[in-house]
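Worked example

This section walks through a single chain of length 108. The input is the sequence exactly as stored; nothing has been trimmed or padded.
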Amino acid sequence: MTEKRKKPTESQIRASLYQQLQAKEADAPHFADLVEEYMNFWRLEKKLAADIKKRGINYEEKMSTGVSKIVNNPSIKDKVAVSKQKQAILEKLGITTDQFISADGDTL
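Given that input, the structure is written out below as tokens.
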């Protein structure tokens, strides 16, 4: 049986991003601002995922005419856009899986 991995917390992700910047000697204020922007997108992505889980991919919505209609959940499209923004921020910061630096300072 596979063990379910515990999802990282917001503080763990923030700390990991700052650790990557410090290891690159790039922990300047403008990079710290990008980390906080990333975290804003991270929180937004969690809210979008919760909405998708709650309402599903499609849901029934009552139109102004009083007729019900099945509509696509806009959170799906938004979640894709947010994910792309998060990836763009990581690229700007130079944080990739190719150059990940572990807690002990080793490049993995």
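What to look for: The chain has one domain: 10-99.
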